[in-house]
Amino acid sequence: MSQLRAAAAAGGLRRSSGRAVPAARRSRKGASPRGGTAAPPPTPHVFSDPAEIGALRRNLLAWYDRCKRDLPWRTLAATEPDADRRAYAVWVSEIMLQQTQVATVVDYYNRWMQKWPTLQALAQASLEEVNELWAGLGYYSRGKRLQEAAKKVVFELAGRMPRTAEDLQKLLPGVGRYTAGAIASISYGQATGVVDGNVIRVLCRLRCIGADSSSPAVIDQLWDMANALVDRSRPGDFNQALMELGATVCVPKAPLCRECPVKQHCRARCRKLFGKPTPVPDVEDCGVGGCPLCPPATEPWDSSLGVTNFPRKAAKKQPRVARSATCVLERRGCHGAPEYLIVQRPSSGLLAGLWEFPSLPLDQDLQEEKQREALADHLRAWTGWPVVAGGLRFVGEVVHIFSHIHQTYVVYSLPLDGDVTLDTALSPSRWVTEEEFHASAVSTAMKKV
Length: 449
Fold this sequence. Notes:
Layout (H helix, E strand, L loop, with lengths): L2 H8 L2 E4 L2 E4 L27 H18 L4 H8 L3 H15 L4 H14 L3 H6 L2 H8 L6 H16 L8 H7 L5 H12 L8 H10 L9 H14 L5 H14 L18 H8 L45 E13 L5 E7 L10 E2 L2 E4 L5 H16 L9 E9 L3 E11 L13 E4 L1 H6 L4 H5 L1
């Protein structure tokens, strides 16, 4: 059991020579790991005083009760009496909220729950239907994994959702530690913490954790801290309150510190106001001398940044640069309206299973004339039509930023006088009107095109 769990379980007190010693007053000087285990984190970086933990829980929950946003998944979690349907409602919201803003998710969530209100309904849907509803939400594999896991619950687990965070993570594909903790605490009242991007930011500021917040060692400490802090009587509300605080008050660039309900517990704020992590003189200040959780000596505290010194992250890897030639083939439909040819992407990889205009990856240094010729060759081989490079009209370029790819689409158009039938073994294809295109499972990038 880590120091944090011990503090939570034992009330933050340690017996020494028959006398209770508050954990917050213990010095780490002279301490050494026993039996080869890692040394506990320095006291200034953890919550070890049970009175402070209790006050933080009360203040945060009182603020949440007053200020929480009215969100559809919260309503369902609070009103749905069936545990499986309640867990499903929370699960869908948590998957959608990964890497996506709340404002974007709300409409998608409402349409999803209206179309598939139960696990059983989702398990019976086709992947094409799932992709169509998910289109525009990004990170498309999330919807696919969600449906795969729903099928497992329905067909292998007799329709019963796992009841603990441990089993949720172990049994359901695509459910990681955070999602499992969120479902278990909100739906079942399991006293388990959660750590997402908002929680990382809040906890790092509360305890001046300035080491790389994406490193495994720091993430482990944050999970220990979240599990120690979570309110035992209202774990779901507490976890949502901590995330809500990070989303609305303790935001990345301009935090609203004066409105923060737990500002008296925030050592980053104390450091900004008093020049050190805490104004209390008998609690040790780590400084930067070898502490694994303080900011590295090469990146010391910057007083101009204040609390936004935290969290620290490793430099982001630059996205890969990619170019593709994309052709919008157009014909006149039977009613005179224009129709466009779309093809389906492979079932794995980027944008798996989505539909797009016929596209061809390009070398970065390929000149425009060569790009046009390469696309004409591709279309000729694909369609059997005598496509010539000169018939391709250059329209322009579209840039779309994926999480790891800076993608440029070089867009051409090609009007056709008749039908084109593609080999479905190479790629499924179909002609669609503009309205049908926007209703199909197409990516935001293709909508830009």
